[in-house]
Design goal:
By secondary structure, the chain is mainly α. It has one domain: Amino acid/polyamine transporter I (Up-down Bundle), CATH 1.20.1740.10. Helices cover 72% and strands 0% of the residues. Helix 5 (78-86) packs across helix 16, helix 6 packs antiparallel against helix 13 and helix 9 (201-216) packs across helix 16. The protein is globular. It comes from Propionispora vibrioides. It is found in: Cell membrane. It is a multi-pass membrane protein. This is Amino acid/polyamine/organocation transporter, APC superfamily.
Length: 460
């Protein structure tokens, strides 16, 4: 089998360590936390923190599995390239196109909620208009240069991180000193006074694991950046080791503060729970600030998603699994055609926002969760094959997955259980029907491609 070299397209290594760390944080700290967490709170109540702790452990194993391969072989196209090389052409084809599909749907989900945040200030602007403006602006940023993307994503992520840290500090002041609450400390009673810490029992925590895992989607962007990192053997391990515990801190810490300030059972599912809380405690200025932050979060995640989609199409084109047009770079090393096509497909989200703006996010989230689970499962399966080959070749890896192979098998079993849980949730059940149909389409697409490549060239 001929394995392409992802460097042959002259893609440029312009991402520094600070870019890579913030890209991973930016991809994972977004709509799932700022917007989708309201739905999870309804399922699990204060025990939502347990859901994120469990999910965080599994994500750590998945990230280390990807990092093991990325450090040894830093290429653009990430695990699609690894699947292609260590498993076969069909897994590489399916892995790459599924990842692209995944982030197309994630992009749509982000665009779908942009209008909700804008409507907080300007309720008369249609949601689809806000989505379209966001799409055009972020696409323009991604077409400039990878450094431009890196800088924008760095500052997008910085805003989110500082906002969460500030919110935690501000929330602790409300809890302990009653700041903004008439000087009356709120305390921690809301964590157990409204039906207990487990108001819906263990079953509620189990159901909430689906949305918790969706929230973590995006951390694997570190693998995508490996081909454009200045020093991948140093920056990738640093980013992976630091980003997981930071995400857990931000999710668990921020949500604990939120649930202590405001009763979980009075929290609505419309808009961000962050904004709702500060509005209810009588601090409208903070609510306006946080609404700006959650809007930035949506833009950040869409920025990361479009970047990863462009690079994945680029990697697929080098493998021969996508049209060669997508392997062409401009003078700045940007795969323009791949980015424009990915951006164009997400225009469908603008249409969905026009047709059914109230439920579009939930629909897209369900489909994206299925695609994310397929991606993560492929990372783990490919890592098992990668490790077997490296051990046979007597290669000593510098960055290893802890508790291998136990951690790989436990993570795969957990991902399988998420599919079972999704079958128990009516609004997500339909995505389980979409997944087999989508995989069948990919299989047919691969067979068509393979047949065309095997046909002799005819001269007329």
């Amino acid at each position: 089998m001929n394995h392409p070299n992802a460097e042959e397209g002259n893609i440029q290594r312009g991402l520094k360590n600070r870019h890579i760390q913030m890209i991973a944080l930016g991809g994972a700290i977004g709509t799932g936390l700022f917007y989708g967490s309201a739905s999870v709170i309804k399922l699990a109540g204060p025990a939502i923190t347990v859901s994120y702790l469990i999910g965080g452990i599994i994500i750590f194993f998945i990230m280390r599995a990807l990092g093991e391969m990325s450090v040894e072989q830093p290429v653009s196209g990430s695990f699609s390239q690894y699947a292609y090389q260590y498993w076969g052409e069909l897994p590489g084809f399916i892995g790459g196109w599924n990842y692209w599909f995944n982030y197309i749907v994630v992009s749509m989900a982000e665009l779908a909620v942009v209008g909700t945040y804008v409507n907080y200030w300007l309720p008369d602007i249609p949601i689809w208009v806000s989505a379209l403006v966001c799409l055009v602006a972020i696409t323009a940023i991604n077409l400039i240069h990878v450094k431009a993307f890196g800088e924008f994503e760095f500052w997008f992520a910085i805003i989110k991180v500082l906002a969460i840290v500030g919110m935690i500090v501000f929330g602790v002041a409300i809890i302990v000193f009653g700041f903004g609450h008439g000087g009356v400390p709120i305390g921690l009673g809301n964590l157990w006074q409204h039906g207990g810490f487990l108001p819906n029992g263990v079953y509620g925590v189990i159901l909430s694991l689906v949305m918790a895992m969706f929230s973590f989607g995006g951390v694997e962007l570190i693998g995508i950046t490996a081909g454009e990192a200045e020093n991948p053997k140093k920056s990738i391990p640093q980013a992976i080791n630091q980003v997981v515990w930071r995400i857990l801190l931000f999710y668990v810490g921020a949500l604990t503060v939120i649930l202590a300030i405001f009763p979980w059972n009075e929290m609505g599912t419309q808009g961000s729970p962050f904004v709702q809380i500060f509005t209810h405690v009588g601090i409208p200025a903070a609510a306006h600030l946080l609404n700006a932050v959650v809007l930035t979060a949506a833009l950040s995640t869409y920025n990361s998603a479009l970047y990863s989609n462009g690079r994945m199409l680029y990697g697929l084109a080098l493998q021969g699994n996508a049209p060669r047009l997508f392997a062409k770079l401009n003078t700045s090393g940007v795969p323009v055609a791949a980015i424009l096509v990915s951006s164009g497909v997400t225009l469908f989200a603008v249409l969905l926002s026009y047709i059914d703006p109230d439920r579009v996010f939930l629909y897209l989230m369900a489909v994206a969760t299925i695609a994310i689970i397929i991606n993560w499962a492929m990372i783990l399966l490919v890592q098992l094959k990668f490790r077997q080959q490296k051990e046979a070749e007597k290669v000593v890896l510098t960055y290893k997955l802890p508790l291998y192979p136990f951690s790989s098998y436990i993570s795969l079993a957990f991902l399988a259980s998420i599919l079972v849980i999704m079958a128990l949730i009516p609004d997500m059940r339909y995505s389980l029907y979409i997944a087999p149909a989508w995989l069948l389409c990919l299989y047919i697409g691969y067979q068509v491609k393979a047949k065309r490549q095997s046909e002799p060239v005819r001269n007329y």
